[in-house]
Amino acid sequence: MSEILEPASLVVRRPRPASRAPEYCLDASAGHLLRLAHQRYQAIFQDRAQGLGLTGPQFATLVRLSQMGRATQNHLGRLAGMDSATIQGVVRRLIARGFMRTASDPMDRRLRVLTITPEGEAVVREGREAGMRANDALMAPLSEREREQLVTLLRRLSPG
């Protein structure tokens, strides 16, 4: 039996459904969810670190300087994940509070070097405890394996 072919002009074609791009869903946005998690962490940290009076960027700056011992302002900003304008304000406030000091580099007098003060080290010790408690509280719903996976994935998403 041979098949009868109809001319193309007689074939009724159904319109294809328009391919729609997936709609943006805020509740599935990694950026949005990271921001919410960050806000929650900051609130928990502030609660756990009452009395320190440090912002997240100030604490990160002190921790990095404590680790390094000494650093230039620009290098410290890069290590703490801040641009030059932000680190400048953070350093100015931390110096004013007596948590760090600045001096000329003995090898290059034009270069300003930052060091942490004993008061700054004391704040870092207290802040680290608060940070660990805040981190544990934030990640309490996760298993140990999930916590490790989350940190690994966040490191992959972070610059540097």
TrEMBL record:
PANTHER family: TRANSCRIPTIONAL REGULATOR, TRANSCRIPTIONAL REGULATOR, MARR FAMILY
Top-level taxon: Bacteria
Classification via PROSITE patterns: HTH_MARR_2 (PS50995)
The organism of origin for this protein: Sediminicoccus rosea
Pfam families: MarR_2
Occurrences of domain HTH marR-type (ranges): 27-159
Name used for this protein in its record: MarR family transcriptional regulator
Taxonomy of the source species: Bacteria, Pseudomonadati, Pseudomonadota, Alphaproteobacteria, Acetobacterales
